[in-house]
């Protein structure tokens, strides 16, 4: 389903403000919004499960439960067998109570969940237990019901947000519904697109409930990336116009990391790619990829001539944290060249923090463990609020920051933020970060700003991973992404 504003992501507070504006300024009653939400969700249910004849709806006491009661009513009116299991003896107040009354008066059976009774028989279960306001673990009775639903083997439709998932952060403080489909109302909630959310939302659809454009006056908190490529090259292009990436790394035993980085820079379109590495890596690199100009570098003095010819540095893959890697890292950071830092380049930065000149194009690409070291906190702290973490990284170091993981995040020092909607679990394997480092460096070399290089690079990397995973996620290798990456970068297989 397509909808206006589907790439705009909002915080829970922003969505509540939109809801209040619809009611107080546009004059749309809350019950009418509830009715529209139920209708949109029921339409999605019928579209995805057209053969379903029996619907079971699980309602909490709040407005999310009200949406569920009205959906059950619509199913009943459409001739389906509809049953409701309620968390509370009665709905809360206002519109939710009115919705429950309408459902009961129409003859829809409403029973209370006692914590032990079996699930209702149904072809599709509908989760209307909690809405966007939950930021704590579900109550024990609700948690038991959620666990029962998750293990029931039937599809689950979540209304607005899977119950138990924090709609602001994508974190689950306790058990949470694992939905097959989530229909989000009015505006897309940012927490449905990163972190643990990917294991709980299933497919996400947005229903804007027919609200007028005048509702959306506030800028969103973040945006979902859209598929993008670089424009075609001019017919008179030559390698000198496409930049020179210098990849620095590959200490003893890590030739593979710096090779993947360098090869990704080549496939990403850099005109020239040099590698500064240990002498023992030269034979392997030259044999495997002769297009890489590999140089034995034993220290800063040997690195200086390579820096003079480079336009962008990619530092960290296989760099190590010993004397050799540390000396090259210091030399790279002291130059004025555009820079991508990953892996041990980030671990060294955590040990010796520095804030970069805002005029310098710098991108850091940590995974949650590296991010935790850079921020001086735990991995759990990072994953509890990935949005705050990536913004904290960008502001602390004065860089463009990428926080990798499910729903990778990209933030600049001014707080602008993008979320990657692509990628798959098969990409959780060694070498994927090395590829991203080289790709972002190649895009910088071709004239992209740090923000554009990171946004485009993260998107292309994830989309290439999805194409490569068509043969299966398990066993996916980082090098499997190189062929689809080239196709995507040229506007093919998009």
Automatic annotation (TrEMBL):
<keyword id="KW-0067">ATP-binding</keyword>
<dbReference type="InterPro" id="IPR030677">
    <property type="entry name" value="Nnr"/>
</dbReference>
<keyword id="KW-0511">Multifunctional enzyme</keyword>
<feature type="binding site">
    <location>
        <position position="367"/>
    </location>
    <ligand>
        <name>(6S)-NADPHX</name>
    </ligand>
</feature>
<comment type="subunit">
    <text>Homotetramer.</text>
</comment>
<dbReference type="InterPro" id="IPR029056">
    <property type="entry name" value="Ribokinase-like"/>
</dbReference>
<comment type="similarity">
    <text>Belongs to the NnrD/CARKD family.</text>
</comment>
<feature type="binding site">
    <location>
        <begin position="404"/>
        <end position="408"/>
    </location>
    <ligand>
        <name>AMP</name>
    </ligand>
</feature>
<protein>
    <recommendedName>
        <fullName>Bifunctional NAD(P)H-hydrate repair enzyme</fullName>
        <ecNumber>4.2.1.136</ecNumber>
        <ecNumber>5.1.99.6</ecNumber>
    </recommendedName>
</protein>
<feature type="binding site">
    <location>
        <position position="318"/>
    </location>
    <ligand>
        <name>(6S)-NADPHX</name>
    </ligand>
</feature>
<dbReference type="InterPro" id="IPR000631">
    <property type="entry name" value="CARKD"/>
</dbReference>
<keyword id="KW-0630">Potassium</keyword>
<keyword id="KW-0456">Lyase</keyword>
<comment type="function">
    <text>Catalyzes the dehydration of the S-form of NAD(P)HX at the expense of ADP, which is converted to AMP. Together with NAD(P)HX epimerase, which catalyzes the epimerization of the S- and R-forms, the enzyme allows the repair of both epimers of NAD(P)HX, a damaged form of NAD(P)H that is a result of enzymatic or heat-dependent hydration.</text>
</comment>
<keyword id="KW-0547">Nucleotide-binding</keyword>
<feature type="domain" description="YjeF C-terminal">
    <location>
        <begin position="222"/>
        <end position="492"/>
    </location>
</feature>
<feature type="binding site">
    <location>
        <begin position="131"/>
        <end position="137"/>
    </location>
    <ligand>
        <name>(6S)-NADPHX</name>
    </ligand>
</feature>
<keyword id="KW-0479">Metal-binding</keyword>
<dbReference type="InterPro" id="IPR004443">
    <property type="entry name" value="YjeF_N_dom"/>
</dbReference>
<keyword id="KW-0413">Isomerase</keyword>
<feature type="domain" description="YjeF N-terminal">
    <location>
        <begin position="15"/>
        <end position="217"/>
    </location>
</feature>
<dbReference type="Pfam" id="PF01256">
    <property type="entry name" value="Carb_kinase"/>
</dbReference>
<dbReference type="Pfam" id="PF03853">
    <property type="entry name" value="YjeF_N"/>
</dbReference>
<feature type="binding site">
    <location>
        <position position="127"/>
    </location>
    <ligand>
        <name>K(+)</name>
    </ligand>
</feature>
<feature type="binding site">
    <location>
        <begin position="63"/>
        <end position="67"/>
    </location>
    <ligand>
        <name>(6S)-NADPHX</name>
    </ligand>
</feature>
<feature type="binding site">
    <location>
        <position position="257"/>
    </location>
    <ligand>
        <name>(6S)-NADPHX</name>
    </ligand>
</feature>
<feature type="binding site">
    <location>
        <position position="433"/>
    </location>
    <ligand>
        <name>AMP</name>
    </ligand>
</feature>
<keyword id="KW-0521">NADP</keyword>
<dbReference type="InterPro" id="IPR036652">
    <property type="entry name" value="YjeF_N_dom_sf"/>
</dbReference>
<keyword id="KW-0520">NAD</keyword>
<comment type="similarity">
    <text>Belongs to the NnrE/AIBP family.</text>
</comment>
<feature type="binding site">
    <location>
        <position position="64"/>
    </location>
    <ligand>
        <name>K(+)</name>
    </ligand>
</feature>
<feature type="binding site">
    <location>
        <position position="160"/>
    </location>
    <ligand>
        <name>(6S)-NADPHX</name>
    </ligand>
</feature>
<comment type="function">
    <text>Catalyzes the epimerization of the S- and R-forms of NAD(P)HX, a damaged form of NAD(P)H that is a result of enzymatic or heat-dependent hydration. This is a prerequisite for the S-specific NAD(P)H-hydrate dehydratase to allow the repair of both epimers of NAD(P)HX.</text>
</comment>
<feature type="binding site">
    <location>
        <position position="163"/>
    </location>
    <ligand>
        <name>K(+)</name>
    </ligand>
</feature>
<feature type="binding site">
    <location>
        <position position="434"/>
    </location>
    <ligand>
        <name>(6S)-NADPHX</name>
    </ligand>
</feature>
